[in-house]
Amino acid sequence: MITAGPTHEPIDPVRFIGNHSSGKMGYALAEVFANQGADVHLISGPVHIRAKNPNIRVTRVKTADEMNSVCIQELENSDIIILSAAVADFKPENIATEKIKKTDKNLTIQLTKTPDIAEGLGKLKKQGQVLAGFALETEHEVRNAIQKMERKNFDFIVLNSLKDTGAGFGFDTNKIRIINRSGKIFTYELKEKSEVAKDISRYIEANFHV
Description:
This protein is an alpha/beta fold and 210 residues long. The protein is built from 5 helices and 14 strands. Strand 12 (177-180) and strand 13 form a beta hairpin.
């Protein structure tokens, strides 16, 4: 099971809270695993990419609540779970049923937390399942990534930095570090996301029996 892309949390019928995630990394992972013969369930937020391999079953969602619901339903039948989606942390407490009109007054939107998909799956994970997540950081990168991995019960975490040119949202390339539960760091050079996906796949194959 792989998650990809952003989530869009509606403010009104035409506006939403979201982020710049393109879904390219998650889709690259799905293609690599499917090409190796895996049955892949890709849970995708709103992106402009289409899966190519017929072994990829795609469920399209928009919000964090929708993605969370599908992930929980599919967890039982998943050997490897890779959470590469950039899920919005907050959503409007109330969604306007009509388009909000522009006025001279400032607009205040009350926000509430979205479900923490990774933390929830980490609590539900069973022995033998591999759970991995991503961390996109701007400061104290390794420390923050390790804390996230431990808090969410990941078996390993993939760290990328917005400080690295050509890495992060929107690019066809990525530069990652994989950190395991022992704190060991595996560093990879900047490369196409399709090749990064292969590196992650090889790491799982070398370190886990699934």
